[in-house]
Amino acid sequence: MSYLAILVLSFIQGLTEFLPVSSSGHLILIPKLFGWPDQGLEMDVAVHLGTLLSVILYFREDIKDLIQHFFRYIASGFNQEKFTPETKLSFIIIVATLPAVIVGFSLKKMGMDMMRSIQLIATTSIVFGILMYIADRRPQLWGLDKINWGSGFIIGLAQAIALIPGTSRSGICMTAARAMGFDRITSARFAFLLSIPAILGAGLLTTIDAVKEGHSIFNAVFGMAFGLSFLFGLAAIHFMLSFLTRHGLGIFTLYRVVLGIILLTVM
């Protein structure tokens, strides 16, 4: 794989993992557009782990609090006095992750080649882009402290749908949250926190597949892709949270709709 391909694919993964435009869709499209061969499992592992590190580093204080409160509650013998808002949020994230795990394993058993078509990516880009715009018109009523078991699980169900290329994991999670009245920053923060087990799971499964097939994972390509996707992912998270303090999601809907129309027309 050329250095240009590594740079472009790392940039695409790092950026689109946290912007509501679909990382999986773009990672399928870019090699097709440039005539590049499939990036391979080594590349998939590297960019997944790179973006995982970026979100962990960015939310390290939040993650530290969630883990500490979770294990304090467990160690206390489930003492309700130790069941803090942070404990509750940690359990909600676990519960919200389950739908994606179940659907992900099911799709892996069935095979996903049928879900990699340009027409599907174009359609999901347009449809879920429009739904995101409609949801973002809702008033911004609730903060992170208002996320409960029901709303968390609904966002988790939305995340499971994002396994369809072109949907966007962060985009559909924010869409679900905004549709329920959560403010834009809360919607993005919860989507990013929820991405941690999702990216970890995807990276782990890809690593297992790579090892089973005898691929040498930790090489120069891995190091470059890992480092670049980490840096681009960190920048994307910071940009998105800063952007949403002043703007809505309309510009991303416009991009998705235009991209979808171009794909349906040209491809």
From TrEMBL:
It is found in: Cell membrane. GO terms for molecular function: undecaprenyl-diphosphatase activity. It is a multi-pass membrane protein. It is an enzyme of class 3 (hydrolase). Signal peptide: none annotated. GO terms for cellular component: plasma membrane. Keywords: Antibiotic resistance, Cell membrane, Cell shape, Cell wall biogenesis/degradation, Hydrolase, Membrane, Peptidoglycan synthesis, Transmembrane, Transmembrane helix. Its main location: membrane. The chain crosses the membrane at residues 89-106, 118-135, 147-167, 188-208, 220-241, 248-266. It catalyses: di-trans,octa-cis-undecaprenyl diphosphate + H2O = di-trans,octa-cis-undecaprenyl phosphate + phosphate + H(+). One of its GO terms (biological process) is regulation of cell shape. It comes from the Bacteria. Its EC number is 3.6.1.27. It holds the Pfam family BacA. Belongs to the UppP family. Catalyzes the dephosphorylation of undecaprenyl diphosphate (UPP). Confers resistance to bacitracin. Bacitracin is thought to be involved in the inhibition of peptidoglycan synthesis by sequestering undecaprenyl diphosphate, thereby reducing the pool of lipid carrier available. This is Undecaprenyl-diphosphatase. The gene is uppP.
